[in-house]
Amino acid sequence: MSIKVPYEKVKETVEKALLQAGLSKEKAEICAEVHAQSSADGVESHGLNRVPRFVEYVLGGLVDPEGEPELIGGKGAVENYDGHLGIGITNALFCADRAMELAKVHGIGCVALKNTTHWMRGGTYAWRMAEAGFMGMSWINTESCMPLWGSDEPGVGNNPFCIAIPREDGPIVLDMAMSQYAYGKLGVYRLAGKKLPFPGGFDKEGNLTDDPGAIEESKRILPTGYWKGSSMAIALDLAAALMANGKSGLNLDEEGRGSCTGCCQIFIAYDPYLFGTREEIQEMLNKRVAAADASHPEKEGGKVTCPGERTIETRKQSMENGVNVDELIWNQIVAISEGNLETKDIASK
């Protein structure tokens, strides 16, 4: 069952929960804002739904709240950092910001991060770069949670990829896993007692299904584009490990810690006006988006939009009417904020 909670109350409660878990005041505040903003934008799967699990990561030693990115090396517009298993959100924010600083000097900036932890909503960092006026790209490698095409067992991560276009009339932001639905989204539908809009994986008998619980049980999520999503997942895994000189998904599998512990992440910022004026670039973007949005809908009353456009409207509604929150998850976060750290992670059940 979903309830509406005012944004400021959401942020305040999450911050209290993270303080209970041992985070510093500064880091708890930053992470609370990212989690609250993710849910306000309609991405509750990696917003509030992840808070209890993140607390478990910290208490279980998978995340070091005091870990900070350390510069390992740099050449021109590229830098490499060791995340020291610090908080995924604060590590990733640091790297996204550093990529933009490099782009101010070189026109493009790339930061490769290794030995870090789950960054929660991947789109957070792409949105951050776009809203600062840069084109942004980022991706991550993870332990295996998705079968390669033609296999019936997990053999690759779903390795989310993000790209953001800095359109002044509203950024265009793609945030996608290499699976049709990320596990977090499966959990959202399961908790709501709903079927998926489209088949998202296979059950234990190998049947394509829209039942989120059956897919979670079989661990056979469907690669986006079938063999194409499977292939891109491998390519992103290898590229991240190569660029960061860090661990591949296989290394993460062999270590067996799970939850993206020790993963690699890449952040690229690009100056959109490196070879064109603001006026001509923005005019081109607006014309292209307008043409896409004007596409004839397949169903009467439908509307075609570019990625990110609906997010802005969802955010507006959340700020005005309250953030949509699963009641079970919310009660759990409240309990943690009050000192009950024994609460189990409902989102993963």
Automatic annotation (TrEMBL):
| Oxidoreductase recorded as keyword | yes
Question: Which EC class heads this enzyme's classification?
Answer: oxidoreductase
| Assigned EC number | 1.1.1.130
As recorded in UniProt, coiled-coil segments are none
Q: Is the keyword Iron assigned to this protein?
A: no
Q: Which UniProt keywords apply?
A: Oxidoreductase
**Molecular-function annotations in GO:** 3-dehydro-L-gulonate 2-dehydrogenase activity
Q: What is this protein called?
A: 3-dehydro-L-gulonate 2-dehydrogenase
Q: Which organism is it from?
A: Lacrimispora defluvii
Q: What gene is this protein a product of?
A: yiaK
